Structures
1.
Amino acid sequence: MIELGQGSLTIVAVIGAIAVAALAFAVVLRRQVLATDEGTPAMKEIAGAIQEGAKAYLTRQFRTLAIFAVIVFGLLFLLPAEPEIKLGRAIAFLFGAGFSAAIGYLGMSLAVKANVRVAAAATRPGGRSEGARIAFRTGGVVGMAVVGLGLLGAAGVVLVYRGEAPAVLEGFGFGAALLAMFMRVGGGIFTKAADVGADLVGKVEQGIPEDDPRNAATIADNVGDNVGDCAGMAADLFESYAVMLVASLILGKAAMGEQGLVLPLIITAIGALVAVLGVLTTRVRGEESGLRAIYRGFYVAAVVGVLLAALATFVYLPGTFADVPGISEALAGQPGDPRLIVSAAVLLGIVLAGVILWLTGYYTGTTSRPTLHVARTSRTGAATVVLSGIGVGLESAVFTAGIIAAAICGAFLLAGGSLSLALFLVALAGCGLLTTVGVIVAMDTFGPVSDNAQGIAEMSGDVDAAGAQVLTDLDAVGNTTKAITKGIAIATAVLAATALFGSYREAVDVAMGEIAEAGTQVAGGIVGAMVAYDITSPITLVGVILGGATVFLFSGLAIDAVTRAAGAIVFEVRRQFREMPGIMTGETRPEYGKVVDICTRDSLRELATPGLLAASAPIAVGFGLGVGPLAGFLAGAIGTGVLMAVFLANSGGAWDNAKKLVEDGLHGGKGSEAHAATVIGDTVGDPFKDTAGPAINPLIKVMNLVSVLIAPAVVQMSVPADTNHALRIGLALVAAAVALGAVLASRLRAVRAERDDERDDSRTAAGVL
Amino acid sequence: MIELGQGSLTIVAVIGAIAVAALAFAVVLRRQVLATDEGTPAMKEIAGAIQEGAKAYLTRQFRTLAIFAVIVFGLLFLLPAEPEIKLGRAIAFLFGAGFSAAIGYLGMSLAVKANVRVAAAATRPGGRSEGARIAFRTGGVVGMAVVGLGLLGAAGVVLVYRGEAPAVLEGFGFGAALLAMFMRVGGGIFTKAADVGADLVGKVEQGIPEDDPRNAATIADNVGDNVGDCAGMAADLFESYAVMLVASLILGKAAMGEQGLVLPLIITAIGALVAVLGVLTTRVRGEESGLRAIYRGFYVAAVVGVLLAALATFVYLPGTFADVPGISEALAGQPGDPRLIVSAAVLLGIVLAGVILWLTGYYTGTTSRPTLHVARTSRTGAATVVLSGIGVGLESAVFTAGIIAAAICGAFLLAGGSLSLALFLVALAGCGLLTTVGVIVAMDTFGPVSDNAQGIAEMSGDVDAAGAQVLTDLDAVGNTTKAITKGIAIATAVLAATALFGSYREAVDVAMGEIAEAGTQVAGGIVGAMVAYDITSPITLVGVILGGATVFLFSGLAIDAVTRAAGAIVFEVRRQFREMPGIMTGETRPEYGKVVDICTRDSLRELATPGLLAASAPIAVGFGLGVGPLAGFLAGAIGTGVLMAVFLANSGGAWDNAKKLVEDGLHGGKGSEAHAATVIGDTVGDPFKDTAGPAINPLIKVMNLVSVLIAPAVVQMSVPADTNHALRIGLALVAAAVALGAVLASRLRAVRAERDDERDDSRTAAGVL
């Protein structure tokens, strides 16, 4: 075990203490939120139903995912590594997964208490700023928990494993990412199945408004906001945090030794401090929009973060690369001042966060041209709404991807041609981006809380027109902040994935070295191309195509799962209307719980397919085609993934807010044909922005980490001249069969769903309805 | 100049003769088509208007494009090459562009005469098979012309330039691709602006049926079918043919010398022969569907093509690689029988064509599950139609991309680890694919001709119910064949682009060799990464992201252009209804010509932005980041491009046919809410399948050939240690400014369009309407 110096250990211990302090601050904030008024009895009753549903879902989800986690835990032991690392990595995997789940649960459990408090606040004078404050502080709790647990986990692993920490941390990051992906997909399907299903029967068939208590799916819809947008996104951001840290520590150690390992922890610890500042300074002043206040909090945190990070860097690092203790040979002669270069990389990351914030706000905000344009196209019907939203989404994806690419270019140029430094700087830019993550999580949680508050207000009927307007405004702000978070999350995915190429190469190089050392002959021919990272080779290009295809398939599966699950909701709600005529007249209370149960059952069933695809696709490509094409696969997945994720998130955000604009009176207002057109756009956008789009972020990370983990095994099974290729190809075929089998199973479910559908039809035709 | 042997020259001359014979056969077929009955006077009048509009548009388009062509012709002289090659390449560019334009014009000019003949045939007994025959033979003329001119051009260049032909052929391919891209984009915008605009005012606002003569946009809609789906696609397929041949000749010469240069010509000449067979054997028997007959023709041609190609290969090539005269050193020791390996590669390409045909037919045909599923979702409204169509599109894109990737893998495995042979085999697989192109073009042209025939029938009122049903069936077949052609076209794009990486590398290597020979020092540091093809380098990854982003931006621009141009049509049609009340009652004939003029003006204006983007993006990336990232850019564009192209084409095809299914009586039939929902889906799909999607194919080729052409200049300006990087970066910035400026100009047009729109609104509000 490589030892760390006493000074470094002290710093890491201090960072651990900061992590604990961040968690303590989260507890304080939580008390503040819970101390506010809980609202009228009607509100409390509705909120109670939502709480119950959300807890029931998450508990069942965790039970299902625990099985997955145990299987993966076992599989991790099959991969080649030193026994000690193997065990540590597997345990770290469980911790990563556990923390991810805990953050999700925590986010949900507070959000379901905060929603009713925001609704209650809106009924009081000064409700605007008070409501925004509660919603934002709720987010603050989750944000501080993300930062605190992420930092605690990383610092803990470093304290225990010292110089061996990076390999163990891969397990931590993988656990966090895998669980987050499942939570994102499962929660995303739940929330949008309920939402779309509720709209299809409620708005389309029965002509009753959104969140009308007569609709049996409304409670499920609100539960969905909490398990998808809140728990799912919190786990996702935790995972972004964890994986980014993992990548930085690995690359930092490789490039700059001990100091490189500790530096990223220092930067993110600063992020924890400025997050406190950001949460405390976010306050809506007078009549200003909630978005403005949130932006202010973000920018304050960002500017202070840059200054503190630069200060820490200048104190911690020496003035030349040669003076960095334990610097890699390649970097010892690197010109330039490492303090300046590192500070510039961190700045790059923070600026990137700011630009994404602005760009996403521009594309999805209710006051800027793109959303107004989408709203405008509602006058020529739903088709133009859909097309204009797609246009907005595509354009915003290009510019967002472009500036992320520019940030990577910047880090690359700072490194002056050194690949290992460039990768570390990309990771540091990611850490810079992460210094804002506390505020970002707070912003994001704002979304589902205010959405829920509006639902509770509508269902209880206890909020007057002025209060309702306050909640509508908050909800619109939430739509934009949710889109922003997705932009930031995907940016961390790209940076982390780019940086992880460094650990990928290292893993491959180590494995190649071992083969050479053992004196085994290395095979030539096709194997040569299998281990080359040559982008112009046809087989690498095949990897790129398959990587992009996986993103497309994953998105398609997620969207289809929502459509299918929504169909089941439609039958159930229809059945309730049919069998209980009292519902429509308001005499009978619909059976909300049944719909929640169906959502729970279906989303747990549907999350397996995309999950298995994500885990097995890189295994199939890696063992089937080699580590070179697998690198191509990752590059293709990153390139297509970032574009697709932003496209889906922003077109969805623009449609949602375009609908809000029309509901606020533009182009005919509620009930007009323009409104109907924007409702269609919004429904199309639902699975885009809340199921498929955000799940691409953990997808990329899961595929990346799976690749890093299997790379040594692939090399061992393909490179020696006397190797038995049958086993390797057999493994690839099994993985491909798992992926295709999962897709096929989902197709069969679709066919079964259509059959049920026909049965429902014939019953309706027989006059039962 | 490297000489070719007498034997080779004789073979090439024979191939030239086959090309001329193919053109002669086209003339014969054309006569047959024109000999059929022209229909009633009303039909003739409508067809006359369509002819006039289509000719006027193409003429104006060519005038605009001639300016572009002349500019590019000039720019080609600025790129480094030997003077003789420079001139030859520039002239070949003009020929390529000219042939592309000629094919487009020819396709259009015959289609506008065939449409009315198909409509007339439908009124007679046995109309089904007679109508299908005329439509398919019209396609046959275009198909034979594509094959004949492509082969003639390539054979001509080889005869004149002998061993230097490959470098000159780059110009030929580039000209063909550039012109085809503009024709695809311009025609695509025209056809869909008219179609969408007509639908929005006609179906949505006024509630009159499609192709109703009272709608001023109907003639423009039918003109659009001819200039977009027919002329655009014909030029596009010609371009596919030309670029694939170019890639094969270049790689064949590099890998296997003289025989490698001639072999691809032999394979494609066989394609010309079997195309004749395919066209002649396609005949609808009794009550079978038109699609079945077309499939039969295709499969007959494919099987005969495989057999003839294998026979020719066995006659032409020796039994070992070492015996191939002029074989490259690297391949002299290659094990295996070249005759078997080459035949297998050709077979791979033909099988790929067959699988794509089947797969596309499955996803978009009216009798298979996916389209039936989309039609089914119409019962829950437009949102689910849009979502299910997107799901179908995404899934089909993944499987199509997957099998193209599998074909590349197959070629790679056949090559047994030799990169240069692998690239040549990929190109030969492409040639195999192309042996079916004659039949494919015929299938494609079938689409607009039958679509037009239906329009003419509807407008003239001279076709009875039975005849109308015949035409509806033919039109549905056309929707599927159009989707199939797009699948095949994008497959050729991927294969050609993969193969062109070979010429790209060669161009770079030659330029690097020249620098080394001149004794100039080679710069290290950042430049090292700029010339490495390392997929794991951050800067290459930036290239991949930017490549994907270009495809997204291009697609978004094309879709937006359609929405915007459709808006202008909406105003004009509204104005005519407002100012001429006699239109609605049928007393006044609308001014069809005005709408055609607007479509012409707008699509010529709108085609510049995506065109400039395609040409300048690789220049910006290449000069800005280097040849390594440029290779990444191409890989990203190919990977994202193939997925996006198939997604857009097939979701559009599925929506169109789902609408047809509902119109045929499913789920409530015409006029039901389900019908309205599928109309929305179809309108969303219009710019997907006929504007953005198919233009991605030439886009990829244009970007590829631009990259091949600029690669030597990039190396010369970046690699020498004493180079002045300012000029290189300046060039990159200019190119980036051109691309962004074009995007900005299109945004400004959008703002202006919205302002016009508001003016129109206020006029409507003032009660003028």
Note: The first helix of chain A runs from residue 6 to 34.
2.
Amino acid sequence: MGISEEEIISRYLAPLARQNPEALGLRDDAAWLRPKSGHDLVISCDTLIAGVHFGADDPADLIAGKALAVNISDLVAKAATPVAYLLSLALPKAPDAAWMSGFAAGLKQAGRSYGCRLLGGDTTRIGGPLTITITAIGELPTGTMVRRSTAKAGDKIVVSGQIGEAAMGLLVRQQSAQTKRWGLSPAALAQFERAYLAPQPRLPLVPLLRRYATAAMDVSDGLIGDLAKLLSASGMGGVIRLDAVPFSDAARQIIAADPGQIERLVTGGDDYEILATIPAKAVEAYRREAAAFGVDVTEIGEIGAADNGLQVLGPDDKPVTFKTASFQHF
Amino acid sequence: MGISEEEIISRYLAPLARQNPEALGLRDDAAWLRPKSGHDLVISCDTLIAGVHFGADDPADLIAGKALAVNISDLVAKAATPVAYLLSLALPKAPDAAWMSGFAAGLKQAGRSYGCRLLGGDTTRIGGPLTITITAIGELPTGTMVRRSTAKAGDKIVVSGQIGEAAMGLLVRQQSAQTKRWGLSPAALAQFERAYLAPQPRLPLVPLLRRYATAAMDVSDGLIGDLAKLLSASGMGGVIRLDAVPFSDAARQIIAADPGQIERLVTGGDDYEILATIPAKAVEAYRREAAAFGVDVTEIGEIGAADNGLQVLGPDDKPVTFKTASFQHF
């Protein structure tokens, strides 16, 4: 027996909003928000659909956590501190109590760890896959938002974490026969799956991006394609070296067994790492301060003139090209 | 041949955001918003799904207009002035140019008439029905939001416009055989369909609600059920008279032919009229000032003690009950 719409809100979601009066118990037409004086808001809105962005059978708490994480990642990339979010939940059928309680628990935990509160939203029934839209709201001192379009010639191109982990996680989940040939350890398989199911937005980078980055974005549709978008938005070109891109030991093991997989690693989606451009003289400070927060950042290349576009150099210094630079829905 | 994701954004949606720098050309991870000092934001998020909230074959410009209208209606009910919105568009397939251009035109016109600008959003592909989520943002002087939960004993219950028009419009579109028996004129049929396809949020009421209303909400899931929600949120009861509910001449013609249809009129969804509670001594001023803006408002009852719940009185002064008070997704 499924849970009613009324129960979804009153029993599972309203408790998440109990401590913030602006949510009005999720029982009003809208929520209110009193912006902090001297601050701008930064707002992002992303939809996640079962079968596209997550699996319909993934654990409910991880689905909820990922939906919030990918939106928070957009705020982080803009150097905004998360403050609140709205959730629209379109469910194919009335959920059962176990699923709904897992979903609410995942949302609660994610909201706590990102410091952002549930303001409101909507619950509907869809004749299609589970569809989750989150609107995330962050704040930052007036005029300090970091954009995609402001990279400068000579800036270093820097990326956080390790690239391609989530793309491998998706492959492990969908085509385990293929990944078996690589002889990966159970720990490596779990690490890839975790990256896909439970991405971690890089919150510690918020103040550092504000201080050091000339431009930034989060890597959600593949490193190469997303970097190309940043360059295009900035009207610049750039060069990166494939052998500088940070990969995990497990990913390196795959590359050793099957060198062609490097394309999947650098063009596959769902990294939610932060790609930033940093003036050369500030790179060391950015790297050191990020490391102090437990986030590794790696210099992978440099911004150059627009006419050369994005050049990706292989280990032999020759340009490498890829079939599909990044994920497109259609 | 369908349009690519890149083209949807750059060619059809970005032009709507050209004049507002916060949207960053819809080419960044997020948008920014600089709140007006001394003001609160009011935020609403509603999802509309083909087959539930509109027909998949409805004209694209009307689909877009309705998606924005129903969200703006929530802001109006809170006495907020619309300022901006985000759009998440989940499309079952790559749209053709005619559909996409109609959709963008409808959005543009609606945005202009409500004075709110496109800030950002998301475009995805869905293995299901067309799904549109809009997050609408309004503003009002700090602390002046009108809630659902603050109706007071003795307040008059007042509703704008005419009730049940959209519910009849849906019936006309879905079961024309049934509506033929009522001998409605083509003009009446068109009026009902228009109410369903192109709801008009009551923007002129924003300053009046701020001045006069003790509580308000928009009627989206049926007058009776929504009023019951307002009473419950306020911890109050109330009495309304069915013969005081404002119906159009065409709706009255249906009631005359088939008295049972009154239930559809007062419990059917999609009215997007404003239900408000107004202190008795202010009702006349509210009515007169609304009329000056071209909006009729009608007193239909009064707030009373909680223990009596919602009483709906028929023409014979006897209480009337309905099978389903309002729309529930599940």
Note: The radius of gyration of chain A is 20 Å.
